[in-house]
Amino acid sequence: MRDRLRDILEVRTRRPDAIAERAGQRLRRASLLGGDDQLFIIAADHPARGALRVGDRPMAMADRAELLERLCVALARPGVDGVLGTADIVEDLLLLGALDEKVVIGSMNRGGLAGTVFEIDDRFTGYDAASIAQMGLDGGKMLLRIDPGDPATAATMQACARAVSELAARGLMAMVEPFISHRTCGRVRNDLSADAVIRSITVASGLGTTSAYTWLKIPVVEDMERVLAASTLPALLLGGEVSADQDAAFGRWRKALAFPSVRGLVVGRALLFPPDDDVAAAVDTAVGLLRG
C-alpha cells in the first residue's frame, strides 16, 4: 500500500483534476439496496473529526496507508456495499480503484472536533449536497448531537435540516445520525438510554422540507423494539466502538437486524480494527449476520 501512496501523491501533486475525472468514470450501482434490500457500509469518517482512537490505541487511525489498506480489504469482501467517508478518504479510494459499483456516502459535518470546547458545534466542513451530486456520490451523512445545555445545538440542527432538504432536492439519501448528548467532566457523552435515543430519532425524522430521502443511523441499545417504533424511516445500525467481546457485539447486531425497519449496518472501527486485527474475518462475520 505504501508504494501505491506514491501514485496517489503523484496525482494529487501533478494532476489534481484527475480526481474529478475518476469520479466521473466510476461504475455506479443501479440502486442503493442490493437484491436482499439490505445495505452494508464501512464507515471511515472518524479521522476528519480528530477521532483517531480505537480501543486502547489512541492513534490507531493516524496512519493513512494502514487505514487505506484495511479499507481496501473490507471493501473487497463479498457482501460489502460501500463506504462512508470525507472527501480525502473517498478520493484516495477512488484513485486506488476501490469504489467501482460501490455505494459511496459523503460525510458532511465534521466541525465538532473530538475533545474540544466547541464539539457540539458540528459545522459543515466536509461535503455539501452540490458537491456530493457533482462527484457522483449516492448520499450524504450528517451527525446531529442534541445537547440541551449547549446553544450551539440550534445552529447544527438548522444546518442539518438544510442539508436534508438540499439532498432530497437532488434525489440523494440523507443519512442522519442523531444523539442526545451531554458534556460530563469536560467531555461530550452520548446518552444511550432507550428514551434518549427515541427522542433523538423523533427530532431527526422531522428535519427538512421532506423526509422522503432520509435514513437514520442509530446505535444498538436496550429495548430496540420501542426505539424503532419511534419512526417510519429506514434505519441503519451504528456499529459503535471496538468491543473486547466482539461476539457479544455481533449478538446485539443480530438481534436488532431482525426488525423490519432496520435495513443494514454502518460499521467502521469495530471491523477495521478488530481485537485480533483480522479485518477480513470480522467483515465476513458481520456480513453473515446481515446477509445470512
Write the layout of secondary structure elements.
Layout: H1 2-14, H2 17-25, E1 39-43, H3 64-76, E2 82-85, H4 87-95, E3 103-107, H5 129-134, E4 139-146, H6 152-169, E5 173-184, E6 187-191, H7 194-205, E7 214-219, H8 224-228, E8 235-238, H9 246-256, E9 262-267, H10 269-272, H11 279-291
Parallel strand pairs: 1-2, 1-9, 2-3, 3-4, 4-5, 5-7, 7-8, 8-9
Antiparallel strand pairs: 5-6
Mind explaining what this structure looks like?
The chain has helices spanning 2-14, 17-25, 64-76, 87-95, 129-134, 152-169, 194-205, 224-228, 246-256, 269-272, 279-291, and strands spanning 39-43, 82-85, 103-107, 139-146, 173-184, 187-191, 214-219, 235-238, 262-267. It is globular. Helices cover 39% and strands 19% of the residues. With 292 residues, it is of the alpha/beta class. The chain has an eight-stranded parallel β-barrel with strand order 1-2-3-4-5-7-8-9, surrounded by four helices.
Distance between the termini: 32 Å
Give the biggest sheet. Answer: 8 strands, parallel, barrel
- Kindly report the CATH topology: TIM Barrel
Q: How much β-strand is present in the residues?
A: 15-25%
Entry keywords:
single chain, 292 residues, alpha/beta, TIM Barrel, 8-stranded parallel barrel, 39% helix, globular
